[in-house]
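Entry 14. Structure prediction run on the chain below.
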Amino acid sequence: MLNQARQLIKISNLSKSFTVSKNFFGHATKKLRAVSNVNLEIFSGECLCIVGESGCGKSTLARLVLNLIKPDSGSVEFMGKNIFSLSAKELIQTRQNMQMVFQNPFSSLDPRYKIFDTIAEPLKIHRKNLSKLEIQKKVFELLKEVELDESIADKYPHQCSGGQNQRVSIARALTLDPQFIIADEAVSALDVSIQYKILELFKRIQKEKNISFLFIAHNLGVVKQIADRVAVMYLGEIVELGTTNEIFSNPLHPYTKALISSAPIPDPHKRNREKIFLQGELPKPTEIPKGCAFHSRCPIAQERCSLSSPTLDPKSGDHFASCFFV
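Output returned:
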């Protein structure tokens, strides 16, 4: 059970908004709500997937978890320590255990660095006691770990394919033996055949090294393949949370049901699900409706939904949903 697993990260009441316009005096007149009162736990060795439409706040949440941007309120505890209260020196130490794999490897890898230098750089910064020979050995071990030939070490990113570059990004993330990796849409820029191979690589690394993953995606097929648990996000809020099996076989929140109904079934012998079409337009993040953020599009909304906002409550075991009428 999840209750018995070791908690690695605890996200509490995390919120973040961005100012999009100011008045003559420099005071904010309009704010964009990116993340709103998010509470999540990530356990040792698990893969938690965040899924939702583009612009729902997934990437902002990832950057908050790594302390790349500061929150308006809330905390992120990594191994019991709030990362927002760490000193600069403590944060550098902590960040060695928290790495990120970005969506586009061509933009996240330095085009001026050879592959060897890209992977070796963290070692040169954080493992100053290593000799050149030891660094070389470690780099070649990492290339083997991500199923790349040693010969690629002498190439530049533009000389490699997208799949190869994403494997290099994964190798770089593994360089300092982290306990936690965020993969932000890490396969969406790749061909479908390459996506499968990269996902299998992630799963093998997770199993062999007991690394925790926060995997951000909008492709439900990818989520179903890799996730242990799934958190569904809508306009900055987590509206449903549960195991992958629970989310896909018994979705509770109306938004989750609509998302899953829109995903095609990759089997020609099975009929596709009956699609749920949401009414109305997606509200602007600068103009979130009062009450439940989803009520303006929800097929089962009632008057109560426009007056007060539901909380993410347990509905059965480890299955949570934010809806009054589940």
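Residues 13 and 37 are 4 Å apart (CA to CA).
Filed with the rest of this week's runs.
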